[in-house]
Amino acid sequence: MNYQECTLELLLNLGVKPVYKGCTYIISGINYIHAQGKYIIPDSEMVHTHIAAQYQLAPVAIENSIRNVIQHIWQEKANPDLMHKIFGKHNFIKRPCNIEFLMLIYNYMKYHMNWENDEIKS
């Protein structure tokens, strides 16, 4: 399973339907973070601008779509156990901002799902 498929699966398990535009943008954000390598930690503006250029949209549209997905996850709490595993201290207290969310998803996949050479072995 590659990281795009894994990201989508995680979002589905968190109760997010793939009809949300933010799902596509989150996958693109994870792709961008992964492409940066371990020495660059991107900020929100870098990620939103990169994704916006990819989809020919304004960065604010990307930011809002990702925020809507995060808000949905925190309102619905469809899978509290998975939320706790991925988001830890953010779980139920305060939802993370976009870049925190992306980095937490990225790090969860990288460290807890044996991510090797763009493939994830569950």
Total of DSSP H or I helical runs spanning 4+ residues: 6
Tell how many strands the DSSP assignment holds. 2
Largest sheet: 2 strands, antiparallel
Give the strand order of the largest sheet, numbering strands 1, 2, ... along the chain.
1-2
Shape: globular
> What proportion strand?
under 5%
| Estimated radius of gyration | 13 Å
Q: In terms of structural class, how would the helical and strand content be classed?
A: mainly alpha
Q: What are the segments in which pLDDT stays under 50 over at least 5 consecutive residues?
A: none
- In which range does the helix fraction lie? 55-70%
| H and E string | HHHHHHEE
**First CA to last CA: what distance?**
8 Å
Roughly what is the average pLDDT, rounded to an integer? 88
How would you sum up this structure, described in words?
The protein is mainly α and 122 residues long.
Summed up:
This protein has 122 residues and is mostly helical.
Task: Note the topology.
Blueprint: H1 3-13, H2 21-36, H3 44-55, H4 59-76, H5 80-87, H6 98-112, E1 115-116, E2 119-120
Antiparallel strand pairs: 1-2
Looking at this protein, list some descriptive labels:
two-stranded antiparallel ribbon, mainly alpha, 122 residues
